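Example 3.2
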Amino acid sequence: MENKSSTFSLGGNDTNPGDKPQGSKKVLDKLKIVFENEDYLVIEKSAGIIVNRSDTTSNEITLQDLVEKENKIDLPAGRQVKSDTDEDFRKRSGIVHRLDKETSGLLIIAKNAFAFSVLQAQFKERKVSKSYVALVHGEIKPRTGDINVPIGRLPWNRKRFGVLAGGREAVTSYEVIANIKYQKSNRGLSLVRLFPKTGRTHQIRVHLQYIGHPIFADPLYGGRKIAREDRKILPRVFLHAEKIKFLDPRSGKEVEYASNLPQDLEALLEKFELKKDN
């Protein structure tokens, strides 16, 4: 069943005030269902929504909370958990992969343990193709290329990742879409499409910082002063998961889904002027 206009949301009069603190109304209003069948959902996550529950998210509603409340997936009860896959499916509420809190775009949610297992295997075997759109500082040259440097968690700052000799393999391909004039910087900006070949935490953000072109409004990797100025006009990272392609877990048929830039990112681009040499 394909559904390009459906939404599901937390909030309203049926929410139990004791379930979650009430300070998160603007964080999670609704999620758009791009596609749904018996095995999985493809959704568009808005910026500002945390995907997975953790010890540090007790005061915020997460995507996991939303999925469980809406009964979108067939979660096994404790006695029905028969394998590690069943247990992982239950713990993750069917969420196959993740996006950072401030990143918008496409996410896959498995509706049963079978689909969860098949889809996770595709990610591990690098059979899933994804593309993102980012706005970055400076003009990237050459206009196409690969960034292939290992990434690991920084020992001196556990909230951040960086390029480390002992890190895990990380590969990102890119292509410049357009160069943009920016009155606050003589370096200008680049609108770029990115194709991560691996799935390391903060991979795209770290790789772009490494080549000297941090993402617009990135508070972790953009530089404190630059990010502070950026966030005066865009209070989130300019990174959007625009396309995802994988094999349907039941039919084995290749499927692809796309998501347009959200309104806040489109509105920002409309303020800028393209360079004539694009």
